[in-house]
Q: What sequence folds into this?
C-alpha cells in the first residue's frame, strides 16, 4: 500500500513585471549578434522588459547590475522575476570585459540577492552565463546507502539570503583541481547553448523541466571544433523554492 503524501506544488507569482538585463561582449566573439537576436525574440514572447548593454568593460558589468538593481527598487509596481544574461569570454568564476580586465561572477550575483535587492526578495532571479569556464575540451564518452534524516526548524517569517536564484552556465566547472570546459560558439549561427535555451524556453513547463530538455538536446548535439568532434552540456545550480513557469 502506498501511503506517500503527494507533493504540494507551489509556484512563483508571475503576474507582476518581468525584467531582463543582457550584458554581452561582442568583441572577438563572432556569432554573438545571433544570440542577442534570439534572446530578444524570447524576451518579447515571454513578456519581459529587456535592456541590452553591448561591450561592457569589467567595471561596467558591475555598474550595469547595480543600476538594474537600483531601478527595480525604485519602482512602485510589483516585480515577478528577473533574468540576467552574461555573455563574454571567461574562466572559472570570472568574465572578461571589453577592456580585457576580469569581473568576478560572485560579485555580480551578490547584487540581486534577498538582502541587497528588496524588489526581488523571495522572487526568482535567473542568471544565464554564456562563457568559457576553462580550456578543457570534451570529446564525449560512449554510453555502453544509508538514509540520513535531518530535522530543520520551520521558520516561515524568514528566508535565507541566497534562495530564489537559478544559475545556468553554458558549460561545466568539473572540480577545483582541474580547469572547466570551453563554451562553443558558431561565428554566424551563435552558441549552441543560447540557441537551444531560447528554443526550449518558449515551450510550456516549469523552468527546471525546460532546462533538463536543454541539457538533453545539447548532449545529443554534435559539435565540431578544429576538425574534432566535441561535446558540451550546461550546468544548473538552483536555490528556487517554488516552481517557475515562464508561459
A:
Amino acid at each position: 500500500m502506498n501511503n506517500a503524501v503527494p507533493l504540494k506544488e507551489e509556484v512563483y507569482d508571475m503576474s507582476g513585471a518581468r525584467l531582463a538585463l543582457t550584458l554581452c561582449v561582442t568583441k572577438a566573439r563572432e556569432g554573438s549578434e545571433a544570440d542577442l537576436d534570439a534572446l530578444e525574440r524570447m524576451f518579447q514572447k515571454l513578456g519581459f522588459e529587456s535592456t541590452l548593454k553591448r561591450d561592457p568593460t569589467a567595471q561596467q558589468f558591475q555598474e550595469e547590475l547595480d543600476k538594474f538593481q537600483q531601478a527595480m527598487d525604485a519602482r512602485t509596481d510589483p516585480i515577478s522575476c528577473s533574468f540576467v544574461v552574461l555573455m563574454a569570454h571567461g574562466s572559472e568564476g570570472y568574465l572578461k570585459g571589453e577592456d580585457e580586465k576580469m569581473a568576478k561572477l560572485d560579485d555580480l550575483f551578490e547584487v540581486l540577492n534577498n538582502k541587497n535587492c528588496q524588489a526581488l526578495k523571495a522572487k526568482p532571479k535567473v542568471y544565464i552565463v554564456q562563457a568559457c569556464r576553462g580550456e578543457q575540451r570534451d570529446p564525449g564518452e560512449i554510453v555502453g546507502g544509508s538514509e540520513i534524516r535531518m530535522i530543520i526548524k520551520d521558520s516561515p517569517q524568514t528566508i535565507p539570503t541566497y534562495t530564489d536564484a537559478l544559475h545556468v552556465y553554458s558549460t561545466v566547472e568539473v572540480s577545483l583541481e582541474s580547469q572547466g570546459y570551453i563554451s562553443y560558439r558558431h561565428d554566424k549561427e551563435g552558441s549552441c547553448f543560447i540557441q537551444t535555451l531560447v528554443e526550449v524556453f518558449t515551450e510550456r513547463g516549469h523552468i527546471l523541466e525546460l532546462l533538463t530538455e536543454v541539457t538533453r538536446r545539447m548532449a545529443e548535439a554534435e559539435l565540431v571544433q578544429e576538425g574534432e568532434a566535441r561535446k558540451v552540456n550546461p550546468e544548473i545550480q538552483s536555490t528556487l523554492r517554488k516552481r517557475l513557469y515562464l508561459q
